[in-house]
Write a structure and sequence with these properties.
With 103 residues, the chain is mainly beta. 0% of the residues lie in helices and 48% in strands.
């Protein structure tokens, strides 16, 4: 059973921003959309680009290479050229700490 791991504090990721972290052997991106924080795999399913180099567009994260978009709430594809979603990770806030659960 995986434990939650602290990756940052909430002030590290301002509203509308995202940031990449390595948890064990897993690269993740944490997004702050104003409605909360979300954690996803930091790898586009289309060409393996780090999506943390991209941008947030509403509830989507946009891959910087070819513009594939993924829903930050589920990891589902919302725009091509990707056809497979990316992993979504459980995240919780304790005080100011951002904790992510990686299996």
């Amino acid at each position: 059973m995986a434990d939650f791991v602290k990756v940052a504090v909430t002030s590290d990721i301002p509203t509308g921003q995202l940031r990449s972290f390595r948890v064990g052997h897993t690269d993740i991106v944490v997004c702050n959309t104003g409605d909360g924080f979300h954690a996803l795999a930091d790898e586009c399913s289309h060409d393996s680009a780090p999506i943390s180099d991209g941008d947030l567009d509403g509830n989507d994260i946009v891959c910087p290479r070819h513009g594939a978009t993924f829903d930050i709430h589920s990891g589902a594809v919302t725009g091509p050229p990707a056809v497979i979603g990316i992993d979504k990770y459980e995240l919780k806030i304790e005080g100011e700490d951002i904790l992510v659960k990686i299996d």
